[in-house]
Amino acid sequence: MSNELTVEIGQQSQAGIKAQNEDFCHILIPKGMDLTHKGIVAIIADGVGSSEAGKEASEYCVQGFIADYFSTPMSWRVQTAGDRVLRSLNAWLYHQGQRRYASELSLASTIAALILKSTTAHFFHVGDSRIYLVRQGQIRCLTKDHRLTVDRHKTYLSRAMGAEYEVNFDYSSLSMEVGDTFVLSTDGMHEFIHEENILELIQSHHPEDAAKAMLDAALKAGSNDNVTCQVVRITQLPNQDEHEYYKELISLPFPAPLQLGQTLDAYRIIKELHTSCTIQIYLAQDLQSHESIVIKTPSINFEDDPAYIDRFLHEVWVGRRLNNPHVLKVRQLKHKRSCMYYVTEFLEGQSLAQWIVDQPKPSLEKVRDISRQIIKGVRAFHRREMVHQDIKPENIMIDEHGNIKIIDFGSTRVSGLEEIYTPIQQDYIEGTANYIAPELFEGFEGTPKSDMYSLGITIYEMLSGGHFPYGKVKEAKAHKHYDYTSVRQYNPDVPVWMDGAIRKSIHKFPEHRYESLSEFQYDLIYPNSVFMKKTIPLIERHPVGFWKGLTMILLLSNLLLLYYAY
User: Is the pTM here over 0.85, yes or no?
Assistant: First the structure.
């Protein structure tokens, strides 16, 4: 069975008794990667009646949402992408309305968007357009009208796109079943036909015929508004079993070990850089550009392991979607591959782990510079709703010019990919024990704050000459069972406020860590008075007073001893 979401659709829109149709709708069923990673979109909009440009507003809502949604990163969750698009679109409508018409509600519209991705339906809603679900002979409305009731006979629209600078929209989601039918409608339809009539028409007609029948029924019932409806019926969900999924994973064969001078597609192998039981890495030359590149091939020890292959391909997927000077570049191939491998840029330099060995007492400025570059690289992941989950010195390279590159994306958690059905479950804690945030040991998902924890441990290791703040963890247990050891114990040159910043970044509870990496970076450079007050010992804050006080205590103790001795 095909691992693809398929639907039947129908949609109708008419002006009705009005001179102009200010409703607008569209259904887009993409192909290939967009179908898998972005999904099917059905969207309906109704220009606000009191708006000076309602027709224009509804068209902008539909066309703008679709164009912008499919332009968002594939790594983003549907909710994140929809949120960003709706807020941006609303601000544009509001400013255009103010600039062109200088009045409220000049470019205003309702909107109801249905996004079907993998096995989940997502809903975004502003205004009084509706989304219904028909399932197993029952119908229910999935949206709540944003209307303000004045009295029994009078209601007003309380929310609309473009009405205000900030928009509040409703979002929800549900798991789909084969046979589910979604109905999107404007108020010109659903205010004139009952839910029972909608259910009857959906059950007895093909989606296109059902849409036309509902539109005709609303007009016959006396609808005095534009009438628009859409019908989307689920005919197939992605539901491959593991065997079928595995067959797709191994569509390309594993390469045999590569030899010096051998040509693989458009590359000539120069030498082997690294080999292990899980991967082979080769230095090669691009025969077209003549530049040096690196080829990574999977180990034949795992050619029958779906989870291993999935992780290998996952690393390629992540790397190709990141473009940052502090993240290793995974090359887009210009030719068809003959076997499974991927290509990255070639870095000449050393790992941060080796640098720590070579630099047991680095300058604070150098540590700050390295930290700044790592943070820039980590931010590239977080902006695309990715969490690296394996930040550690072994996965950070320093090239010959001192530039930092984050490598190894096999453990990266991608929010958008987690919304896609797969029979392969990666149910293990990602990363390396000494750098893993405590909450991950307890089953919580990785977040930017868990990357912050790993980064803080790495900075501590740089400053302390290879030590760890909670001791070296040899088994998979949470660090919250250990006490923090100040980095100043290993390196007295570290200011107390810098030690305080590191301590906060690796707090055992994520809610007590920094809210952002930029805050952490700032506190690594500039003294934070909070840490000065809390962490500076009395001997360092008031050394003269400390020694005077200690002398007085010792004097009194001696006098007491003399008194009792006689």
Answer: no
CATH class of 243-345: alpha beta
**In this structure, are residues 167 and 161 in contact, taking their beta carbons and an 8 Å threshold?**
yes
For 6-239, CATH gives 3.60.40.10
The SS3 call for residue 259 is coil
b/e for 256-294, b at 16 or more Cβ within 10 A?
Answer: eebeeeeebebbebbeeeeeeeebbebebbbeeeeeebb
CATH superfamily of 350-535: Transferase(Phosphotransferase) domain 1 (1.10.510.10)
Alpha helices in 191-286 (DSSP H): 195-204, 207-220, 242-249
Q: Indicate the domain borders of the chain.
A: 6-239, 243-345, 350-535
CB-based contacts of 433: which residues, under 8 Å, 6+ apart? 473, 474, 475, 476
In tens, the pLDDT along 10-26 reads: 999 999 999 999 999 99
**What is the CA angle 253-258-263, rounded to 5?**
90
Residue 306 CB neighbours (<10 A): 19
Q: What is the pLDDT of residues 291-302, one digit of tens each?
A: 999 999 999 889
Residue numbers in the chain where pLDDT is lower than 50: 1, 428, 476, 535, 540-541
What are the structure tokens assigned to 291, written together? 């530049």
